[in-house]
Amino acid sequence: MASAVLPSGSLCAAAAAAAAAPPGLRLRLRLLLLLLSAAALIPTGDGQNLITEDVTVVEGEVATISCRVKNSDDSVIQLLNPNRQTIYFRDFRPLKDSRFQLVNFSNSELRVSLTNVSISDEGRYFCQLYTDPPQEIYTTITVLVPPRNLMIDIQKDTAVEGEEIEVNCTAMASKPATTIRWFKGNKELTGKSEVEEWSDMYTVTSQLMLTVGKEDDGVPVICLVDHPAVKDMQTQRYLEVQYKPQVHIQLTYPPQGLTREGDTLELTCEAIGKPQPVMVNWVRLDDDLPQHAVVSGSNLLINNLNKTDNGTYRCEASNAVGTAHSDYTLYVYDSRAGEDNSIRAVDHAVIGGVVAVVVFAMLCLLIILGRYFARHKGTYFTHEAKGADDAADADTAIINAEGGQNNSEEKKEYFI
After folding, report:
1. What is the pTM for the complete model shown?
2. Helix residue ranges, H only, 149-286
3. How far is residue 160's CA from residue 218's CA, in Å, rounded to a whole number?
């Protein structure tokens, strides 16, 4: 391995000159002395290789630059900034920037940290190795800048159902340009983005056109940033949507729903809207309300029902958006309609029960008679008149027979 040799007197003279120089010149002379000392021992560099990697860092954080030597033979390592100013020569820092700090220095590595990185620090940094011939490679510092501000703006603070509104989201001064994503609740939507570049920084504005309905009232519209320098950066606005009333008629009385003559009918009108309806109106289609009908707020009360009250009753509700209604059809039954039905139901039940009992009794009787006749299968008696053969004539025979009945012998025949 060859090396260059400088006279020792020259090095001594340079050292003396550096010590006697004014403070402003002393630093430069000291750096020159180090360079001359290194040059006096420059190896040929056979087999040595410089290694480094590019660095990506978020603005305001710490970047670490590493100049490493493979197969080192104690050659001098130097780090320079993009303006080719020496940051570190060995373990000496000529550059008056305290953000650069030595992390590690050895024969095989020079590692330097740069704190509070800004966009102005971006660029190429050079690693130099004093060999023969000298080696040089560079590492690139890339600075990521998250959006300075994220703003969302809705064209209208209050929208009406069915209306199309414009929503804009702006991510200012980022690097690289950010990607904006839209969500309505949990559903992702698609917007249209425009990018503006200014001094290596990017401002992105995304526009979303949205047709709203009553189900969107109170739902958040979310603008979310997709950028390598930041996570979970988002802003949101809640939609405010006005919609016409939704109307429903509730039967309050009678609870069973059967309306008979003489009964009372009570209906309640339920109306929901935005803005909330403050009044409802009861009407009867094709006729006026009965004179005995009473309207109290959202309630309709009709006492002493009769068949002239039959008809369709409508509840109408209005707000600033529109009008809606709901209908109830009234049919009044005869006063005994429910009772007659109950009586008929009771009569049918009683008759059915009696018939069932009679049928059961007849079946039991038939079973008993059947068992009796099965055991006694026919018994009868015969009486023969005695003395008829000895009588002189027929009259005498009859008399003898009748008189002899008490003395006649009972005979039985059994049929099997």
Report:
1. 0.64
2. none
3. 13
DSSP 214: G
Quote the tokens at residue 396.
């005498």
- Gap between the Cα atoms of 45 and 133, Å rounded: 7
Q: Which residues have a Cβ under 8 Å from the Cβ of 368 and sit 6 or more positions away?
A: none
For residue 384, what pLDDT is reported?
A: 47
From residue 317, give the alpha-carbon distance in Å to each of 65, 275, 282, 311: 73, 12, 9, 20
* Rounded CA separation 227/223 (Å): 13
CA-to-CA separations, 391 to 142, 224, 231, 402, 407, in angstroms, rounded: 162, 143, 146, 13, 17
pLDDT below 50 — which residues of the chain? 1-16, 18-19, 34-46, 343, 379-385, 404-416
Question: 113: how many CB neighbours lie within 10 A of its CB?
Answer: 16
Report pLDDT digits (tens) over 158-207. Answer: 999 999 999 999 999 999 999 999 999 999 999 999 999 998 899 999 99
**By C-alpha distance, which of 206, 304, 229 is closest to 259?**
304
Q: How far is CA 193 from the centre of its chain?
A: 26
Measure the CA–CA gap between 208 and 61, rounded to whole angstroms. 34
Q: What is the pLDDT of residue 371?
A: 78
The CA–CA distances, whole Å, from 187 to 144, 175, 215, 242, 260 equal 30, 28, 14, 21, 53
Residues 136, 71, 52, 64, CA torsion sign: negative
Q: Strands of 228-310 (E only): list them.
A: 230-238, 241-253, 265-274, 280-284, 293-296, 299-302
Residue 98: burial class (beta carbons within 10 Å; 0-12, 13-18, 19+)? exposed
